[in-house]
Amino acid sequence: MFLVCVGDTPSRASSLIGALQGFPFFHPSGSSKEKVFFFPFSAPGSTPYETLPRAPSSRLPVSHPLWRSAAAVERRPAPADLQSNPRMAWGQGARRPILGLLSRAQRQAARGYTSATFETHLSSNHFAQNGMIRRRFSSEVPASEQMNLIKQLRERTCAPIKDVKASLVSCNWDIEDAQKDLRKRGVISAAKKSSRTAAEGLLAIAQDEKRAVVVELNCETDFVARNDVFQYLASSLAKMALSAQDPGKLVFPFAPAYLENMSINLDHPKLSGETTVQNAVTEVAAMVGENVKLRRGFMLSTTGHGVVSSYLHTCPQPGLGRIAGLITLEAEDSSASLDALKRVGSSIAMHIVAAKPLFLSKELVSAAALENERDVLRTQAESSGKPQMAIEKMVEGRLRKYFEDVVLLEQKYVVNDSTNIKTLLNDLSKEVGSKVTIGNFIRMEVGEGIESRPEETAKKEAMACAA
Questions:
Q1: Which secondary structure element, helix H or strand E, spans residue 83, and what is its range?
Q2: Which of 47, 62, 71, 171 is found 20 to 30 A from 289 (Cα to Cα)?
Q3: All domains of the chain, ordered by start, with CATH?
């Protein structure tokens, strides 16, 4: 490649040439007494083509076409091309960057910025004495080692490569300090993302013989929900909540504040050490680049002779899923076998996930819900134009259908719709020789009750279409 020096006057061009001779990459194409215009802008030692001679006054005439031509960086032309076309035709797009460089050099020459001045500037800045510009952050670490450090830190943290490299550079390629720096950056990044809607995620269940805990960990996309670090954190939170002090309640719903300040010990290749739940969630949010939050949790317990059963739907691995059903079954006789209760309890938990019951029995249906449904059914019946007595019978008949839809004991069993859950429990009682009852049940689904903002919904739809 070649650098062509131009000036608005011959004297200005001569000053420019004198200034450029101080640069390490500047090698004139011959004796300064004989040649003037083309200079190699490449590796030292390259041989430029011979070009136009100076005028007798050591300057080209002002009228020469080269004074009106622009500076060019072009492929090496044949000598015949130079003689026939001294302007060296080249594209407008390649001309602009070199024009800017030469314009700046001309201004320096006009202010008397000579090669001696440049040498002084070189010695006071971060340049090697052999004339090669060096980058401060790579002066001590070889390029191959830099790539290895970037790879290691990326595997440790799952952070974006851009952030990984920035942290390593700022920490002088110390991987431990860079990892700490990434954690600090992650806190800031997670805080910025905290206002975004997180309606995806996973439910995690942990249980023993008497208790079961389900927690909901949310993120923004189902892609992050498949991340192994995210899944590990969800499982760890459920196990930690199960090991916490027993609240002494059969049904214990808890908010994020119940767990956030508790200490959790993590053992994952990319997430390890002892920290608080809140810090662990923040660190995972920094890794995956999304808003991650612990939304809620439930603990279900049984105090009598019984079992706690659970079922997870859309399960990527044991203990994780998108919809969860939990139920407690209790037998009056303490000598009754629990194996049959566990078997039936698991099938009823699956039924809960599929049928979405709201109440355990008709007696537990709230008065407000019952009155609201009765008003709706009465309005529908009155539109038929039938007498009032017939309307009341229609309302009572439709209420029975409503109970079959929302009351667990009245629902048709999804495994066998010829029977209902109440009949299933009666058959189980006969099998174990003791009356079996349902203590409590819970149904949870990821993101239920969370409404996405319109702009976020549109963004997700666009991403889905692109995929």
A1: helix 79-84
A2: 171
A3: 2-123 (no CATH), 137-193 (1.10.8.10), 200-365+407-460 (3.30.479.20)
